[in-house]
UniProtKB/TrEMBL annotation:
Gene Ontology BP, a term: cellulose catabolic process
GO molecular function, one term: hydrolase activity, hydrolyzing O-glycosyl compounds
Taxonomic classification: Bacteria, Bacillati, Actinomycetota, Actinomycetes, Kitasatosporales
InterPro entries: Beta_cellobiohydrolase, Beta_cellobiohydrolase_sf, Glyco_hydro_6_CS
Organism: Streptomyces gardneri
Stretch forming the signal peptide: 1-27
Family under the similarity heading: Belongs to the glycosyl hydrolase family 6.
Protein's name in the database: Glucanase
One Pfam family in the UniProt entry: Glyco_hydro_6
Length: 321
């Protein structure tokens, strides 16, 4: 594996100069240990193109989606998680590329939303699962987004359940700190239309944000990069005022090219956004939600299940209609 030294000038300049950035929970910079982002060879778009090469939509899906670096999501469907995570980062490492991974298996996952319900069978089962996830990555470079929606999805939960969830997140961060020293972990902070910046700053801090590298925004949603940058800076303003530190943030731009129309579940008329890259108003712009994958049985994905690849939705998202 080759090693390169690079400086995240764009990322640092995206943060407000008045705020002091807290040091990362990990000293290593995985973006400087790799030569760009990893393209998942088994993404849903790649699989669909390979199986439907004669389809008239295949060239556009191949050119605009299948070869763009995006996150691989891991959950109960991944099988033995340590093996699955290790194989994925190992393949990326072999090519000197940086993998983006999503841990999505928390107990009572999507408890209030429901479309992606499931997850580990208990807090202890989750603790074991996430420990194996971190162990599979080990010392290889990676980016991990930890449990999308888990801190914004408090609306129907009582205080006991909230504290339980905070404990699971904090425990996960401890495992990454112990086992995966070259991984940047981002706690998910929802999106600009969900909870206030002040509320999110408190939730992030109480879940262990000081031990994470940063926080993530807009996963599986449609808000513009500018809206997310303003929200991320507002969260950092609250963190600085209350707790004396700030953190870098990343934005999911996979489906925000046309912005939000107020709907979150398979909204019509959306468009892919800026491909995965460093900087762009945040530390990184990432494709975390795979364009064309359903949010559940809703909107233009009526009749589908969460995660199912919908070629017509993907095709329309390329052109924004």
């Amino acid at each position: 594996m080759r090693r390169r030294v690079r400086v995240l000038v764009a990322a640092l300049s995206a943060l407000p100069l008045a705020l002091a950035v807290a040091p990362s929970a990990h000293a290593a910079d995985p973006t400087g240990m790799t030569s760009g982002f990893y393209v998942d060879p088994d993404s849903s778009a790649k699989k669909w193109v390979a199986a439907n090469s004669g389809d008239g939509r295949a060239p556009a899906v191949n050119a605009s989606l299948a070869n763009t670096p995006m996150a691989r999501w891991f959950g109960s469907w991944s099988g033995t998680i340590g093996t699955a995570a290790g194989a994925y980062v190992g393949a990326a490492d072999y090519h000197d590329k940086l993998p983006v991974m999503v841990a999505y298996n928390i107990y009572h996952r999507d408890y209030c939303g429901g479309h992606s319900g499931g997850g580990a069978s208990s807090p202890s089962a989750y603790a074991s699962w996430i420990a194996q996830f971190a162990g599979g990555i080990a010392g290889r470079p990676a980016v991990v987004v930890l449990e999308p929606d888990s801190l914004a999805d408090y609306g129907c939960m009582n205080q006991t359940q909230i504290r339980e969830r905070q404990g699971m997140i904090s425990g996960a961060l401890a495992e990454f700190g112990r086992q995966a020293p070259n991984t940047w972990v981002y706690l998910d902070a929802g999106n600009p239309g969900w909870v206030s910046a002040a509320t999110m700053a408190q939730r992030l801090h109480e879940a262990g944000l000081p031990r994470a590298h940063g926080f993530s925004l807009n996963i599986s949603n449609y808000y513009t990069t500018a809206q997310n940058t303003a929200y991320g800076n507002a969260v950092n303003g609250e963190l600085a005022a209350r707790y004396g530190y700030t953190k870098p943030f990343v934005v999911d731009t996979s489906r925000n090219g046309n912005g939000s129309n107020g709907e979150w579940c398979n909204a019509a008329g959306r468009r892919i956004g800026t491909p995965t890259q460093l900087g762009g108003g945040a530390e990184m712009l990432l494709w975390i939600k795979a364009p064309g994958e359903s949010d559940g049985n809703c909107g233009v994905g009526t009749g589908s299940t969460a995660g199912q690849f919908l070629p017509e939705v993907a095709y329309k998202m390329i052109y924004g209609y």
